Amino acid sequence: MDSNENQQQVNQPERNQNPNFKSHLLISILILLLAIAISFSVTKTEYYKLQLLRLEFSSNSNLFQTLLGFLTPTQKPKRTQIPKPISKPPYCVLWMAPFLSGGGYSSESWSYILALHENIKNPPFRLAIEHHGDLESLDFWEGLPVSTKNLAIELHQTECTMSKTLVICHSEPGAWYPPLFETLPCPPGAYQNFKAVIGRTMFETDRVNPDHVKRCNEMDYVWVPTEFHVSTFIESGVDPSKVVKIVQPIDVKFFDPLQYKPLNLDSIGSRVLGSQTRNSNSKFVFLSVFKWEYRKGWDVLLKSYLEEFSGVDDVSLYLLTNPYHSDGDFGNKIVEFVENSDLERPVTGWAPIHVIDSHIAQTDLPRLYKAADAFVLPTRGEGWGRPIVEAMAMSLPVITTNWSGPTEYLTEENSYPLPVDRMNKVTEGPFRGHLWAEPSVAKLRVLMRHVMDNVEEAKARGKKAREDMIRRFSPDIVANILADHIQTMLEKSSV
Ligand SMILES: *[C@@H]1O[C@H](CO)[C@@H](O)[C@H](O)[C@H]1NC(C)=O
Fold this sequence. Notes:
By secondary structure, this protein is α/β, with parallel strands linked by helices. It has 2 domains: 91-249 and 478-491, Rossmann fold (3-Layer(aba) Sandwich), CATH 3.40.50; 265-473, Glycogen Phosphorylase B (Rossmann fold, 3-Layer(aba) Sandwich). The chain is 36% helix and 15% strand. It has helices at residues 21-39, 44-56, 62-71, 104-119, 138-143, 146-156, 210-218, 227-236, 298-308, 330-340, 365-370, 386-393, 441-453, 455-473, 475-492, and strands at residues 92-97, 126-131, 165-170, 196-200, 221-224, 243-245, 270-273, 284-291, 315-322, 353-356, 374-377, 398-401, 416-418, 420-425, 435-439. The chain has a 7-stranded mixed beta sheet with strand order 7-10-9-8-11-12-13, with helices on both faces. Helix 10 links the parallel strand 9 and strand 10. The two termini are 37 Å apart. It binds 2-acetamido-2-deoxy-beta-D-glucopyranose (NAG). Keywords: Membrane, Transferase, Transmembrane, Transmembrane helix. It comes from Trema orientale.
């Protein structure tokens, strides 16, 4: 719901009936690129790097090669040589998602691609990917493992025939054809030209907007991640025969606590509240990971933490947050929030709060979880809650709101589900009037204190959390669920 806030309305692109849709796509990328070149004030090197990124992502384009050659004559991008299989399956699965944005849909889409790539040997389809649905982030691309980058370039080169292609539009419905903001349309052209078109989406409130319902019903299928979404989508008017639950994979090998040493927390982040910690190693560390927006309940977290703890407690709170579509300077925002609240400074001083707002490369993320003793996120609503399952895979005890997407996997045995006080109306943004959860400040205080005072119990829940993640959401398990659905669709529509 937040990925299109800063994007512009554009005119509806013309319907495209040409089977050679990739070249049309490239022309539209070029137009987009020129528009961006004119309208964005990024530094020159950043700009060229972004060009290079786009180039890598738009292979088979002489136009792009020429453009890059013109800008940086000495740098020719290297192409990985892919051995040609003897017989290729005629079918394609074209996955269109914000692969390069680094947001929630981005990491989700990568998790499916990697799961399929690594676990399905000899699939009855070829996999192709295309960036769609959000802006590219250079930081995110650069933080990706080299193997993932190479795979991205390889899969982007897959040639597909329209009529034999299943398109998966993995984004918010506003990005689907015709898109409401500047992005490659998905599907690229009319719905009927493809073998099937699937919308993969989710939502963080109790309902789906009528316009999004309409867009969902244009699709052949709508994949959602949880039972919560199956019911909210159907209740909102999405055709029940189209709604399919496909859970999200979590890379339990990458997020494996045994593989990592903890990140040194003293070396990252900045203290915005509380006194200098003399011995940060002995402290109980709460970690929260979220994009800075009201929905994530950071106000509830700060209130609970600062009311419950003070300078005498051996505790600290680390917030990994990012200015994804909002401005930074979270330190000031936190101080401002505390000053404007009815919180009273304890005589022993505030319990310390640290903010990490520098970019943490994906490859360092497990080490950050490893440095924490518990994960906490009193969110008002989640589609899936990626940081939550990452923390669970890392065997952390998790305290998070028992509502929306996370109800798919939270239990009393594997976590500390945070009860909801009441449902509240969303008061701003395009989803005003929807309902979401108001997590309980009082109960969050109790749970945070409890986890800190019952370390053994908390560790046992963390252990169970990892077991549940492995059992239900391992990439091999989800890849097979996914491949089965794709297989069924290919069989159904090939009559
Ligand atoms: C969490 O919510 C579910 C319903 O979605 C409920 O059955 C369960 O008892 C709740 N757990 C807690 C601890 O509130």
